[in-house]
Write a structure and sequence with these properties.
- 51% of the residues lie in helices and 12% in strands.
- It is an alpha+beta fold and 80 residues long.
- It has one domain.
- A 3-stranded antiparallel β-sheet has the order 1-3-2, covered by helices on one side.
- Helix 1 runs antiparallel to helix 2.
- InterPro entries: Asr1405_Asl0597-like.
């Protein structure tokens, strides 16, 4: 019996502010998450597992969350 397998990696198209797009791209590269960024195109990211999905969420959250909200979140975590 032949098993079915996916020939392509799952990928996500992410609309990121033009000014922030390269920052997200380079951070994902540092995290070893495959992605590509072409002129006038959305950032394309390969999400292959849950860890990569959480890391993507974290990178995007850092861009979209105010410093004050992030400080509050860290303080709640430290109080535990």
């Amino acid at each position: 019996m032949k098993s079915l397998s996916c020939q392509t990696e799952p990928s996500v198209m992410v609309e990121v502010n033009w000014a922030d797009r390269w920052q997200v791209y380079w951070r994902l590269q540092e995290l070893a998450i495959p992605c590509s960024c072409f002129i006038d195109k959305p950032l394309q990211i390969q999400i292959t597992d849950a860890v990569a999905a959480v890391q993507l969420w974290s990178v995007l959250r850092q861009l979209n969350t105010s410093r004050q909200d992030m400080v509050r979140h860290l303080e709640r975590c430290w109080r535990g």
